[in-house]
Design a protein that fits this description.
92 residues, alpha+beta, 2 strands
Length: 92
């Protein structure tokens, strides 16, 4: 068993979200909960870490990440956008 302290797919190090998954070869590797779930849902288990990364890795492009709607971020932006003051207003 590996002694990794981070997800072998995405590199997250937060121990609260780390889990383990078993590859088709029997090797156990550390992954985050999201990648564990994706591996469990796959049609067939990955045989290597490289295959696991390909199988469950993030397939979004940089463009999709930038344009993907984040509802919470939108609400926070709308809630606080009108409250911004300029530097000159603070001095008054």
């Amino acid at each position: 068993m590996t002694q990794e302290k981070c997800c072998v797919v995405c590199g997250v190090r937060d121990t609260r979200v780390l889990a383990k998954t078993r590859l088709a070869t029997g090797e156990v590797v550390v992954v985050c909960g999201s990648h564990e779930l994706a591996h469990l849902r796959a049609d067939a288990p990955a045989a290597t870490v490289t295959e696991l990364r390909t199988l469950v890795g993030d397939r979004r492009t940089e463009r999709e990440r930038r344009t993907e709607a984040d509802e919470l971020a939108l609400h926070l932006h709308l809630a606080f956008a009108g409250d911004r003051r300029t530097r000159d207003e603070r001095r008054s």
